[in-house]
Amino acid sequence: VNNCGLQLVIQTSSITDKSKPIEFRINKEQSSFHNRLLQHDLEKTYSGRQDNTNFGSSSSITFPVLQRTAEEKILNSDRLTLERQKLTVCPVIDGEDHLRLLNFQHNFITRIQNISNLQHLVFLDLYDNQIEEISGLSTLRSLRVLLLGKNRIKKISNLENLKNLDVLDLHGNQITKIENISHLSELRVLNLARNLLTIVENLNGLDSLAELNLRHNQVSAIKDVDTLPCLQRLFLSFNNISSFEDILCLADSSSLSDITLDGNPIAQETWYKHTVLHHMMQLRQLDMKRITEEERRMASVAARKEEERKRESHKQTLLKEKKRLTICNIARQWEIQQNRIALVASLNQDKDNDPCQINGSAAYVFSEESRSLDTILSTAVQGLSVLESHLVEVEGDTLCLYGAGALECLDRNWSVQTAGMIVTVSFMFIEFDEIVQVLTKLKIKFPNSVHLKFKETNLVTLQQFNALAQMHRIEQLTVDPQGNPVVSFTLWKYYVLFRLNHFNLQKINGAKVTENDIVMAERLFGILAYVASSELPHYRMFSLIGESRRKQFHYLLEGKGKKFGIGSEESSDNRRNGGESTTRAMLNYMTKDFHMEKLEEIKERKTFCQTYVENLVKEAADINMKNESLQKLWPQMFIELVRDAVIEIRNKNSYMKLCLQRITDQKQ
């Protein structure tokens, strides 16, 4: 206390009690600590008095009262420094209404109070205290600098009357949101470093703001900065900014000249500096380093390359999206087609099972149901009508065909390099019967293709796999369970191995083919090929196999010569079929249309036979009825015949003349 050069008065009486205050006068010459005040022991000594001042509540609070000597007032008339005095409250300052600068740094003050009378105060420093709320400042309309750093403030509030504020320091607090400052049009410096901010917003109205410090927060996005016409320095070091899009509004600020982004994830990117400099050509400093013209030039070149890369990336994204939408459209059309087929099959089945129920009324109902289903399914693809109904795509060594229209691509003039590169051919949303028709073209166009994939191709029977025997070579076969019911058959893989044995398949659905699999396939289906070749009539067998196969089969039946004596045509056919045996060749593929034709033919034959038999039965019945009638009439008829004969020959001469006359008439 001896070094303070101040007069400190502790007043312990209540407001209504005007008793004489207890004074502690210190008249020693002024020292370097002439503005330091208040020893904690003095405050402690008098804080326990019962006769305390009441400040609008039922509890009583004791405040130290500060008074300076005339000499001190002359030396420091407009300023007072009370830092590091271990203050827990703001003292009452009497007779100092002219103060312009007040310093309470490094104390333990928890609330701003007892300074409302200092209406000329311009500078207030409450750095490093324990203040939890901004309050008690409404009368300080002249305040220009307010320093509240390193406190416990959680919300910006109660600054409505501080319209002349020039500097606001709130760093090192617990603030989570920028708010209630849009009226501070004169504010030039705002420090919100080391808080808990996650987004920068609500900066509209700060027309004079030149410096904004947001270091060491949790900021991930920035808004409204481009609305600050005077902002020159922006400090964003050590936040959570990860992409340039998060700070895109900074590129629209024409006044910004100094910015820091170091310590953010974005600063780790290789394109960081070039992108920032390209979009903010007005910057003079980045991360506290001056920007050279060479750096600007390099940034411009790098930015152009980055833009080209982004455009290409965007183009690829659009192509991928178009591909996705096209595939969705193809899938929906496929679904419509399958539902229509299922509906028609259901109607036909109903007609066959109960024909008497399909009268005029019932037929009308079915027609309405069919039209209703078509309407519903067509609506599903209404928004995709502008898209392609098929898609052809080459991905690496794979040719992907989506939709039946994609099969037409096999008629294109493929380059030798591209055609030779294709190893895998994938079919999706295409009827297997339509695929079979182009298998010959496939092996000619893409001679190196060894892997076939089928998804949503309506593989429903084992005999459909017979069609693959005409391929040049197959090493892998993949049949997706989706849209291929045949995969649900337990023995389908063994049938494929047996029927396509001449290809020596390596994998089926990704699983490697073992020797045991081949043996099992032979055991399961070997007898089938034997029955097909031995029990089938020769004329039917000849209609199913090729010309060279017919020669081979005749040769085997007749037992003449040796195998190599069959002829060059047969040998070339054997090579073409990869060693396919004649017995397996009997297991032929029958298209759905051909199968339907056969069914129609069988149906017609059945109808013809039924009609023929009915006619025979009817004729036999008529004959039988006539026979029965004859049996009944014959006795009477016989009697009449005998009687007529007896009467006719009763006169022998007349009978002889009559006979001669008949003979004569016949000759004439």
TrEMBL record:
Coiled-coil segments on the chain, per record: 291-324
Swiss-Prot/TrEMBL keywords: Coiled coil, Leucine-rich repeat, Repeat
Domain of life: Eukaryota
SMART domains: LRR_SD22 (SM00365), LRR_TYP (SM00369)
Name used for this protein in its record: LRC49 protein
Organism, as annotated: Podilymbus podiceps
